[in-house]
Every structure is written in C-alpha cells, then in structure tokens.
DNA sequence: TAACTTTGTAAGTGATTACTTACATCAAGG
DNA sequence: CCTTGATGTAAGTAATCACTTACAAAGTTA
C-alpha cells in the first residue's frame, strides 16, 4: 500500500497573497477579530508563520491589501451601476441589492472595516476607509440627481441628507449580521429598502 | 520651603470604578482601541496596574460595566421619551435628537460597542449589545405605531422596515464621527433626519 | 490601642504577540 | 549540471499582554 503524504507545495506569491487574504476574512467571521493572529493565520492556511512574511511585509499590510480590494471590486461594481444608461429607478434597485449582496457574501470584510476604523490611527488606512464611504455616498447621490433631473423624482428632496440616510442601510445591515450571526435577512431586504427610498423620492 | 508631594489617596471602590470606566472611554477616543491596555489605563488614572484589579476582576468586566451603563442611561432615557404622553411627532423628534446628542457626547462608547461586537464571542456581551440595538428599534416602532393608530401617519407603511431604516441614522452617524474625528455634524442633523422620516410617514 | 478589612504598590508571572534568522529545497535558465 | 533566486520551515526574538503575589499602609471597629 502506497501512502501519499500531502506536503505544502510551492506557489507563487500572488496565489499565496490571495490565500492569505481569504484566510483573514474566514478567521474574522468564524472566530472574531481577537483571534486574527499570524499564528492562527498560518495554521488556517497550513503553512508556517514565516512563510506569511514572505508574501506580506507586515500584518497591517494584509489588512490594507484587503481594504484596497474592496475599493476596486465593490466600489468598481457600484460605479458601473451608477453610471450605466439604465433608468434611475432600476439603477437604484441594482445599487441597493448588489450592496446588500456583497455585504452578506463578505461578512468578514465589513467587520474588519469598522473595527479597523476605530482601532487604528494609521492615516493611510483611515483615508481609504473614508474614500470607500464617500464614494458610496456620491455614487448613490448621482442616481438621485439623475432621477430628479429627469423629472421623475421630487426636486425638493435634500439629496445630501437622503444619501446620508441611505448609508444607514448597508451599515445597519452589518450590525444585524454581526449580532445575529447572519441568520436574519432574506433576499427581499433590498426590495423593502428600495420601496422606502422610492417613497422618499416621490414628487 | 515646604513641598507637598501629591500621592494617590485612597478612594472607595465605587469612585474608582467610575474613574476607571471614564478612563477607558477617554483612551478609546484619543488613542484608539489598540492602546486600551491595563498598563495605559493605570497610567492614565495615575494608579498602579494592580489597583485596577482591586476594583474589577478582569478587563472584560470593565467593558461589560460600561455597556451596562449604556443600557441603563441611554436606553432608559429613550424609553422615557417613547412612552411619554407627547404627540408622536414630538416624541420622534426628541427621540432622534437625544440619540444624536448621546452619540456625539460619548464618542468612545460607540466605537467600543461596535468593535466589541465584532471582536468577541463573549455571549453575555453580545446579548447586551443585541438588547441595546433591539430596544432602540422597538421603542422607535412604538412611536410609529402610536402615530398610525392616532390616524396622523400612513397605516400602509411597513413599521418593521421603517425601524430598520431608522437604525441606520445613529449607526451611520457613528461611522462619520469615527472617520471624520467628530468634526462634522451640526445640531441640525437630527432635524434633517426627522424631516425625512416624516415624509416617509405621511399618508 | 489592638484586630481586621480595604485600598494601595512594586515586582513579578506565563502566555501570546508580530516578526526575524538560519537554513533547506525547489524551479528555471545558462 | 550548476548556479541563482524564490519559496518554504523550525526555532528563535524582544515586547507586550492581562493578571498575580507579597506586602505596606490607611480606615474602621471593638
């Protein structure tokens, strides 16, 4: 009988970086941020602690890389929706629903974002977080303004305030997800929020 | 010439507990959660690290005591407003404005709440956080329902969803406060949010 | 005043942290 | 085949963590 012993195979740095980032999110969601140590990280991937530092200079750099991924992937996706040629109402629906989808799919990320915001005084990190927050706000504002310019929505509505209120949707969804371990929230959630938004926008 | 050397005077445990809790919030706001160590805590108060453990069994117990203060003080205040005999519209205004006030006055607390929620798997802590969140939701729902029963507000509005949307207000205010170091937000903020809420509630 | 409890300190404790070092092994190119 | 650079490991490192211990001194009560 031949026994194959699985040994850690060599991978290029890009692949490893992806694995490490994914493991960070997994740990945060399953065990909480407190258990996000480089030791646990290495154990989760099945490599040595030293290997991690081959692919990232510091632990903080891993966090930064993840947050920059959010900036490109998530915000990029929202930008596409907001600047598409669809009707404003349809854009708004896609915008809200894909936000809700992203946040429920990537529960670890959102905990990471808000916790890092309060933990760190790292300015680079804070400024990226500010960008993510403000980009969402200005993209949703663009949709509101397009609908108002078109004449379908109320031009009296204070867009800035509405965008602020909108931002509460993803954020409080997060809180619920954290506190209720993701059990709540069916896929109707975004449609419910959409209908409230539409009532606010009605002339 | 006589020189008086100021030495740490003995205080009763209750006084010290108050000082310790206040110092925790100060540290969180000025230096971030990362620097909330028992060493820094002792230094900030001007006592020894050992003395802290005379008044609280563990560091976690300090956090718990603070969160329980929020439950009694903040939620207690909101409960008084929600169950008062004022008009629903007036209650809603007081409710939103005193929430905004509390959160801006106690910036350290809110960072603590949300960070602990994602950090810890401590069930006692999580359950208290859930209570704080759900109490706010059900108290604001009560105001909505009273206004609907009275006939002033739209009975078609889905109260549960509206309460969820409402919860976004304090939560996203927090994010702004964290990211912008409390520079934004004048005292009109709650009135702006109130007027959006009122449009949603209009028949 | 004597006995006892409470509040304080200084100097530890072992555990854990992010990160480093010395060295092995693998893949690729000349 | 041999060199070279990238990727891996085991076993460290000093620093920091929450918390303890042994003891002193102050306050209280008898």
From TrEMBL, chains A, B:
This is AcrR family transcriptional regulator. Coiled coil: none annotated. InterPro entries: Homeodomain-like_sf, HTH-type_Tx_Regulator, HTH_TetR, KstR2_TetR_C, Tet_transcr_reg_TetR-rel_C_sf. Keywords: DNA-binding. It comes from Prolixibacter denitrificans. SUPFAM superfamilies: Homeodomain-like, Tetracyclin repressor-like, C-terminal domain. Residues 14-74 form the HTH tetR-type domain. It comes from the Bacteria. GO terms for molecular function: DNA binding. Residues 37-56 bind DNA.
């Amino acid at each position: 009988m031949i026994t194959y012993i699985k040994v850690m195979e060599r991978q290029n740095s890009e692949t490893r970086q992806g694995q490490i980032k994914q493991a960070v999110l997994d740990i945060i969601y399953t065990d909480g941020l407190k258990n996000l140590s480089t030791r646990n990280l290495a154990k989760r991937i099945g490599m040595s602690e030293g290997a991690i530092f081959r692919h990232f200079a510091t632990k903080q750099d891993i966090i930064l890389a993840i947050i920059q991924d959010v900036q490109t992937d998530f915000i990029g996706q929202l930008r596409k929706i907001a600047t598409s040629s669809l009707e404003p109402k349809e854009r708004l629906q896609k915008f809200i629903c894909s936000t809700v989808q992203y946040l429920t799919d990537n529960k670890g990320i959102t905990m990471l974002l808000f916790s890092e915001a309060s933990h760190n005084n790292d300015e680079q990190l804070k400024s990226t977080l500010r960008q993510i927050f403000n980009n969402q706000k200005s993209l949703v504002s663009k949709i509101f303004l397009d609908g108002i310019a078109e004449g379908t929505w109320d031009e009296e509505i204070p867009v800035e305030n509405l965008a602020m209120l909108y931002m509460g949707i993803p954020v409080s969804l997060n809180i619920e997800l954290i506190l209720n371990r993701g059990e709540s929230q069916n896929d109707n959630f975004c449609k419910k929020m959409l209908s409230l938004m539409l009532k606010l926008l009605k002339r």
